[in-house]
């Protein structure tokens, strides 16, 4: 892979940050905290925790502690430069460096499963893409939860509250590339479109005019995403915007009632009492590492768990909240019986389809040429302009299977409605795949992502040790529906590439993708090369107030308990459907209830967190 010098710089910058014990109210050791009791203790400084901490700190009468297991994002250039997102994961100090269990649907491969371990969480290390999903997605959440406040129309003010649509880094006129009326203009999070023009931009847009199957949509974030449009990213002034830069750091600089503790691992939430025969959880246990002293901090009002779809269920189970039988087998004292904790994990499966091109320039030139890479980095440093101001792709397409697709003869449609896509197409002007990077050639990648999966997985404990990674099984491509969609998405990408606008660019499909034609060959290609789109959800899912299943209520408070609320992607929900799942060589039907939005998930979590903060403050 490219950028060995950047890797060295990243590691150097990370290492020199550690000696500073206290930076303002940013603490690196629990023993340095000015108090042991706060009004709110928030676990996890990603999107959910960062937004809630910031909004709660606006009430100057409250005291808030935000805890992050990782380091500060400040001063890490690779986080700030949008295009360098590719060097942030996996296997770095800002990543949890998780690995999945062997995936039956991926030929028993175990794959890296990056999650951000740094202020800002995954919003500090992700691909910066900002997509909301369809209005159908949110209306279904409202229907299943019984809370109309989660509907598209009700949540849109919170979506806009988070946003600030900003000019592109190159200053070009974005008319016709985004609908300003669909966006917020005064929120903390910068969102921009097409910060640097890619060589294939005009070809992609021309293809939408040639191919009725792929219409142009001016703004896929307006609730009806079907079609191809310009990608929107959390980039402001050519620099990454994240939960850390947009929420946490500004609040630290403005308010004296917010403390942030980094480099500190929450090992469990603590039961602090019983009220009306219901356990109360208003404390957390903290350790810097496996051999360090344990500290306890309490919350007068609430503990808010925002550790993400992997960390949140792990902490809950370590605290005795989950399947009592399984917890007891690990020597954990059960406190709340909630069998859905860690269940229903859903994620988007990602597959790269690659073409060799005769382009005169592509991202591949920068990736292989250290001199050119240094020049582009210098332009970014000096002016915040150039190709490093943008993310990985300039356009995204959203498509559905036809209504008469054969898969619907045996499977229910897991999408939320007729305006909701089944799959996503992403155009990269470079080689982007799980396989080794070629030493020569220029490439175009049309990556596909299954965005309405039927398969579901789990997050379970490997042991009672809070410093041992949990067992993560996303169950990729274990559903026949999922395999059908990823296969048809690859074929859709080929149809898009057949547009006349690409005729002078594309030479031939590259590598194993080029040889995969039949259903069986495409299945084999997907199982051998597919991976994650990094969008896990639903492991602490929301359900209606009177539901006997689920983990949290519609206001995100933990069921069967008091004092504990969850605000992150783990709470996302869905309707029931029947999926045919293959496990251990046999097929069986399962009732699938969780729902991952049909989009990159960070936008959804910003909206969830904004509403959660309003619920907590009594202003929703």
Automatic annotation (TrEMBL):
Superkingdom to which the source organism belongs: Eukaryota
Binding site for FAD: 118, 266
Keywords recorded for this protein, A-Z: FAD, Flavoprotein, Signal
InterPro entries to which the protein is assigned, alphabetical: FAD/NAD-bd_sf (IPR036188), GMC_OxRdtase (IPR012132), GMC_OxRdtase_N (IPR000172), GMC_OxRtase_C (IPR007867)
GO MF assignments: flavin adenine dinucleotide binding; oxidoreductase activity, acting on CH-OH group of donors
Domain spans labelled Glucose-methanol-choline oxidoreductase N-terminal: 116-139, 308-322
Cofactor: FAD
Record-stated family: Belongs to the GMC oxidoreductase family.
Full protein name: Aryl-alcohol oxidase-like protein
